[in-house]
Amino acid sequence: MDYLPIFLDIRGKPVLVDGGGTAAARRVERALSAGAHVRLFDPEPGEECLMLEGDTRLALHRRLPKPADFLNCAIAYGASEDAARDARLVSLGRAAGALVNVADVTDSCDFITPSVVDRSPVVVAISSAGAAPVIARIMRARIEAMLPHAYGRLAQFLGGFRERVMARIAEGRARRHFWERVIDGPVGDLFLAGKPEAAEQALDAALDDATRAQPEAGGEVYLVGAGPGDPDLLTFRALRLMQRADVVLYDRLVGEGVLSLLRRDAERIYVGKLPNQHTMAQEDITALMVRHARAGRRVLRLKGGDPFIFGRGGEEIETLAAEGIPFQVVPGITAAAGCGAYAGIPLTHRDHAQSCLFVTAHGRDGVLDLDWEVLLRPAQTVAIYMGLSNLRTLSEQAIARGADPDTLAAVIENGTRESQKTVTGTLADLPDRAAKAGLVGPSIIILGSVVSLRGRLDWQGAGHSAGDSAGHAMSLQPQESV
Question: Could you list the active site residues?
Fold first, then answer.
C-alpha cells in the first residue's frame, strides 16, 4: 500500500485552489461538498469556475496566490496545469504547513484525490496510487451500479439509533451482532423498500428482544474453503462469512490475498502445518474452535482448497456436532481443479480421460502405499495431494507395480497464484525435473495423458494460445513454466 487511506474533516476549514480551468473547478466542487471554505486564485478564471462564484463559501481572487493566502489552509491544490506555477504552489503550501496536491503530478502530491462513490454518510473512495486513474474510474462506475442510493439514507437512519443501542447493549461483540442482524434482516429490508416507519418499529422490537434475551450461550463455527490461492476464486458466501467472524483459525495454504479480505478487527490465529512439522495438533485446533464458540464468538476455520477434500473438515465437524456447536460448511475450489485449470491441464477430456481420482500421499501414519494398479488405468487422471516431498518414492512405487514409466505427469506449485510454477515430464523423470526446478510446495501432482494438452491449453502461459501451431507442436514435450 503506497498511500494511507484516510477521510479528512475539512468542514469550516480553508482550502486553497490555484487554477481557473476544469481541473480547478472539480477540486473546488469537491472541497465545497465536504464543507470547506475555498480560496480560488486565477487571473482569468474560466466559465466553470465562474459558475461556482455564487457559493458563499467560495472566495474568488483574480490573481496568483501570495504567501499570506495560505495561512491556516488545510489543503492547497495546484490545478493551473502550468509546471512553474504548480511548483510555486507546492513550495508556498508546504511552507505554510498545508497538504498539497498537484493535478496529475504524483511526485508533487502529499496525497491523492481518489475516485469517490458518494452515498453520504457512506462514502467509498477508490485509488490506484496514481498509477492507473482509468482503472479507478472503471471501478467507481461498477460500484456506483452495485450500491443503491438508498444505502446512504439507511446509514443515516440507523445512525439515529446508535446512542440508544449503545446504552442498552453494552458489550461490543453483542452490539455488532445486533447491528448485523438488523441490517441484513427485516429492518434493512423494510427501510430499503420505502417503509421507514415500519423499519423503526421493527428496530425497536429487535432491540427489546436483544435486551430481554439472555447473553449468548454459544457462538458458531464457519468451516470455509478458501480455494487454492487466488482470492478471486472465493465464493460469495465465503466472503460474507469472512466479514462476520470474530476469530479466524487459518493454515499455511491460505495466502495474504485471501487474509486481506477478513474483517480487520477479527482475531487471527495461525494453526498451519508444514510437512513433518506440525504447529498445532489437530485435536488442539478442534478444541480451540470449541472453546471460542462456547465463549459466544463466531469462529472462522479457513482452509486452503476444500475443507472436505483432504482438509480434515469432516474430523473437525464431528467434534463440533458431538459438542452441540452450531456450524456451517462452505465448499471451496479444491487444489486439483483450480491448479489444473490454471496450468491448462483439464482433469477430464473425452479423448483422454473419462474419470479422475483424487488421492493423498499421506495418511495418519505417513506415506501411503497406494494401489497403483487401480490408479494408473487407461483413460483416467490421477491427482495426488501432498506428494511433492515423496515424489521420487511415489514414482518408484508406481513403476515397480507395472506402471508405464512414460506416463505423462505434471507438478503444479503454488497453483492459481502469481508465483505458480508448472513442471511437466514423465512418471520416470518428473522427480529429477521437479528437483532441478527447486519446487518446494505446496503442490499438486497430476498423472495421465491430459497433461499432453497443456501446450495448447495453457491460457496463463506466455506465447501459448489454444490451437496455435507452436502450442500443438509442444503439447507432448516435457516443459517448465512460471
Answer: 251, 273
3-state secondary structure of 274: strand
Domain 336-481 carries which CATH code? 3.30.950.10
The closest alpha carbon to 218, from 319, 296, 323, belongs to 296
Give residues with Cβ within 8 angstroms of 480, minimum separation 6: 421, 422, 423, 424, 433, 437
Domain 220-333 CATH class label? alpha beta
pLDDT tens per residue across span 3-22: 888 899 999 999 999 999 99
The yes-or-no answer to whether 220-333 and 336-481 have a common fold is no
Residue 450 has pLDDT above 80, yes or no: yes
Instruction: Find, among 368, 347, 369, the residue nearest to 358 by Cα.
Output: 347
Q: Which residue has the cell 489552509?
A: 73
263 pLDDT exceeds 90? no
Per domain, the residue ranges of the chain are 14-113, 150-212, 220-333, 336-481
269, 251 Cβ separation under 8 angstroms: no
- 3-state class of 102 per DSSP? strand
Cα distance between residue 225 and residue 311, in whole Å:
9
Decide: 299 and 210 in contact? Cβ < 8 Å.
Answer: no
Q: Which of 331, 249, 239 shows the shortest CA–CA distance to 298?
A: 249
The whole-angstrom separation of Cα 410 and Cα 391 is 11
What's the pLDDT at 469? 29
Alpha carbons 387 and 384: distance in angstroms, whole number = 6
* Selection from 78, 16, 25, 34 nearest residue 52 by Cα: 25
Given the DSSP bridges, would you call strands 247-250 and 298-303 parallel, antiparallel or unpaired? parallel
Q: According to the model, what pLDDT value does residue 464 have?
A: 36
Alpha-carbon dihedral sign for residues 247, 251, 256, 258: negative
Which residue's C-alpha cell is 457559493?
A: 55
User: What H or E segment, with its residue span, contains residue 365?
Assistant: none
Cα torsion angle, 305, 309, 312, 315, sign: positive
CATH T-level fold of 14-113 = Rossmann fold (3.40.50)
More confident residue, 194 or 24: 24
**Residues 170-180: pLDDT tens digits?**
888 888 888 88
- With contact defined as beta carbons under 8 Å apart, do 39 and 59 qualify? yes
How confident is the model at residue 213, as a pLDDT?
Answer: 60
